[in-house]
Amino acid sequence: MLLLLAFNYGISWVATHGSFNCIFLDMVLTRDGVVVTGCTGTATGMYALVEKFDYDGNPVWVDSFTPQLFSFSTYGEFICLDSTGVLHILGTYQSDWGVFKHFLAEYDTLGNRLSLDTFPRDVKYSGMMCDSSGNLFLVGTTLDSNDVIIEKRTPDWTLIWRDTICKGEGGGLALTSTYSCYAGGKFGDGEGYFITKYSPDGISLWMDTVAVTVTNPPDVAIYPGEYVLELGEAGLGVWTSTGTRLYFYPSITGEEVASLENSILCGRNGVYVDVYSLPGIYLGRGVYYEGEVDIPLHEVLSYEDGFFICGDGLGNGYLVYFVPFDAAVDSILSPPDTLYNPDTITPIVSLSSNVLSFDTLSLSCTIAPSSMDTLLYCCDTFVVFDTTFILFTFPDWPVTFADTLYTLTVNLVSNDTVISNNLLSKDFVIVDTIPPHADSAVASDGSVVQSGVDTDDIVAIYFSESMSGDISPESLDYALTPSGGHTWGTVDSVKWNDEKTVLYIFLEDSSTTIVPGDTIYPDGTLKDIFGNPWTTPVVLGGSFGPEGVERTFVNGLYYTRKSAGYTCISVYDVTGRKVFEKVKFEEPGRYKLTLPLPPGVYYAVIEGERKEKTRILILK
């Protein structure tokens, strides 16, 4: 069995008789369930079947019978319910002499058979409904003259009135709330459709015909607002209660018609039920089929905001309840509201659907920081609701961007009618409790070539992450205290680069006594963006003079990893030639790399954690 959701109606449940050699031909809705009639094969022949299911698809009771033993052709064709709770089942059976007759059975809604009577069969009925008293309205075709007749009978089959409509073949039947009767069918030898209306007393009120070539008679149903619908293989017609034809759509075809509130259900073999609104606007489809078999559809009924279909396929009757499809993103389970020092984040969401769906639906997840519009993470995938609840895990996101507040958004793209629950967002905070480190502090001579500190010399302190906080020139000796009793002296300014990863100290004159080789002790004024203070000392390297390689800039390379992974360090000389390379998997921590290189000026490129940093090195 294959259940298929298409567009915006899905299968809530499917019920069958539980054995093969079964057909569901008609159904009626009761206060607490659905009652179907048809036939089922038994060891002694084909028996009429009456079975009730509750509105969750569970079987409640079942009965099978035949008016006589060893009847090989007994089947219930029509079923209706009167206001007293009595079910009326009309069917056909084959007598001992091979003659087909009618039977009329009555049941209560608990499954007790109240009566069973038989009558001669001179009409092939195509539709039956009843009023509140159990009087039966029927449409059919006489067997001897092919006259389409409409009639009314008492519950005991006494004829109240009958009228001949035309030559042809009878089709569907529908009753209004006041028990006026609509009947449809084909006239002549398939020359077109007719639709007619009768009063409860059998008076013909109006009739209309549509000249189209047809093979089978159409079905009839009431549309809200006292419109009447007629559907067949040649199209869908809509009339007012007074007989004015409003629309005829040749492109809308089917075998069975019913209506929801402000929508039309057009069922056809397959089994497909297409949903339209007036005037002929396509809204969606529900589908049920088994393999490639063209399953007959025998009845469509609306219920609340969904609908039932019944028929037979592969020898077994089916009853299917369709409801509007609603898939939802219920919750974002991961990440939590706050994360501490994460290396990766794994988005996990819970998804649900009110029905099974074998359509492929698009599902996306994005992560963006609050400080910028750029997406840091984007995953586009798909999901299939072969169960009604799914716990979906997206691929990991390596945390490569330093920020405090992020927004994760999950979007499920589907054709359901409720779109408000398809999009869900969640804000979460990343907290970094690892104190920052300075990778290096570098003294460099400016454009004025002069030994010692002059007016354009600079000290640059490099960090592995964005920092916060500012230091004034006057507070340098307290915020960044040099060792050996040295001071910063007169400083022109202290500035950050745009990313706040490099702090530049612009010196002004020779009053500065700090020298390369001094240790700089931070007091915690500078912090990372998470508020962790920088307190780890750093040694000042480089030179304030023009002698370049005659002074030691650094004797190695310092770097920090916040997560485990591969680090690639490439060192180039001033000509651009690569003179050293290291690739190694390393755990989180602070590292020092001693370079086996002769004195000189070098450029080091550090790649790791999806970041790239460049350092200038002067080795003694």
What is the third-level CATH name, the topology of the domain at 327-431? Immunoglobulin-like
Give the N-to-C terminal Cα separation: 80 Å
User: How many strands appear in the DSSP assignment?
Assistant: 53
CATH architecture of the domain at 327-431: Sandwich
Class based on secondary structure composition and strand pairing: mainly beta
Task: For the largest sheet, list the strands in their spatial order.
Answer: 11-12-13-14-15-16-17
- Number of helical stretches of at least 4 residues: 1
Overall CATH class of the domain at 327-431: Mainly Beta
**Portion of residues in helices?**
under 10%
Q: In one word, what is the shape?
A: rod-shaped
